Amino acid sequence: MALWQPEKEMPVSVAAWFDPRQPLDKRVVCLKVLWNGQPRVIKQFDLYHQDKEGETLLHYFSVSDQLRHYKLRFDSRKLLWLIEGIYEP
Q: Which of 19, 24, 64, 66 fits as disulfide partner to 44, beta carbons 3.0 to 4.6 Å?
């Protein structure tokens, strides 16, 4: 698989479902990612972890639309989704 990474922060639109009844690692479900002008329907949730950058809590998600794997970051201070990389076959 080839990895594509943006040269600078690249905001993306993400449709997500938040379910407070679920454990933290399953609380957010990414449904769609709007990337390159095209909606990508998420079929698989692979990984989740969180990290802190100063006082900002960052949430990292690895998701797939069956063709590509997306590494997404949610910045809880800015309330902004960013794309960190895309793995393509």
A: 64
